[in-house]
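2024-03-11 09:14:02 INFO worker-7 job=invfold-0412 stage=load source=structure_tokens
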């Protein structure tokens, strides 16, 4: 069977499993890149050697090691599926090692930048109030942009202080809301009309569902007004996660809030909390506390 035919079936399988359009688009693009390299070969002729040649080609391109690793993970997932479906007889992914990747230090907003960002939105206007809600859901609750865009009114429980996010892999999870975020959500929702459970929270000024183009416009405007050129949606999520830990939040609770499948993904945010741990150690030191007690 030709590779193109197998790829089409693979993508269809993703749809049947109910994976998001973004996930399907990710695999479609990666399969296109892989098949451009191999050609439309018969899938039964796929070999470990050919897969390794693809990895070498990626490493020679002007892309980051993280990107290379991401592309290889996509191909390994596809070949694992091919092995399970018996299109190939060799378990290639078992021997196709992931190339090492150099992870950059996670960038976060400073206190001053957070204040500038929040101050640059005119919440007396509908669009400014909407922008504030979008920013706070990522900056104060750690939501992904895609989750914010998919959020519907029926999933927001203001009195109880939480919302239900529709995350990766179509998994839902509970996300707590800070008092500041709740305040702006109440103000924003009060300005919307004809609300039902399935109504999207984030809308254009025409009251239709916001999309990626809408968000790009919002962040272009916020970059200019706040004078933070590197501002982007995921920077807000990084800032939330790091600040949550630095303020004493539990890493396991953070994993649940962020929707990470492994604790290792969450522990990436420990890097800026080390100094706080050192500063606070005397407060928690068993011996120091013992000496404070009257003998």
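2024-03-11 09:14:09 INFO worker-7 stage=emit residues=295
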């Amino acid at each position: 069977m030709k590779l193109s035919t197998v790829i089409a079936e693979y993508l269809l399988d993703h749809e049947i499993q109910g994976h998001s359009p973004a996930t399907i688009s990710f695999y479609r693009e990666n399969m296109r890149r892989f098949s451009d390299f191999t050609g439309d070969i018969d899938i039964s002729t796929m070999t470990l050697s050919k897969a390794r040649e693809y990895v070498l080609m990626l490493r020679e391109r002007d892309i980051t090691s993280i990107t290379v690793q991401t592309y290889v993970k996509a191909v390994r997932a596809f070949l694992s599926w091919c092995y399970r479906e018996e299109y190939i007889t060799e378990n290639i992914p078992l021997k196709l090692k992931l190339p090492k990747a150099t992870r950059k230090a996670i960038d976060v907003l400073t206190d001053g930048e957070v204040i500038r960002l929040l101050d640059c939105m005119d919440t007396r206007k509908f669009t400014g109030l909407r922008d504030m809600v979008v920013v706070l859901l990522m900056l104060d609750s750690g939501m992904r942009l895609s989750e914010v865009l998919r959020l519907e009114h029926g999933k927001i429980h203001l009195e109880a202080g939480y919302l239900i996010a529709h995350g990766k892999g179509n998994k839902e999870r509970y996300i707590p809301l800070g008092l500041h975020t709740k305040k702006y959500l109440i103000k924003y929702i009060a300005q919307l009309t004809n609300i039902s459970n399935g109504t999207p929270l984030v809308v254009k000024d025409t009251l239709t569902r916001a999309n990626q183009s809408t968000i790009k416009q919002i962040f272009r405007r916020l970059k200019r007004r706040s004078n933070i050129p590197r501002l982007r949606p995921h920077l807000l999520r990084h800032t939330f996660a790091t600040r949550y830990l630095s303020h004493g939040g539990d890493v396991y609770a953070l994993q649940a809030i962020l929707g990470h499948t492994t604790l290792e993904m969450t522990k990436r945010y420990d890097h800026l909390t080390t100094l706080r741990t050192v500063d606070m150690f005397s407060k928690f030191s068993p011996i120091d506390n013992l000496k404070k007690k009257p003998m």
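2024-03-11 09:14:09 INFO worker-7 stage=report msg="Residues 255 and 266 are 6 Å apart (CA to CA)."
2024-03-11 09:14:10 INFO worker-7 job finished
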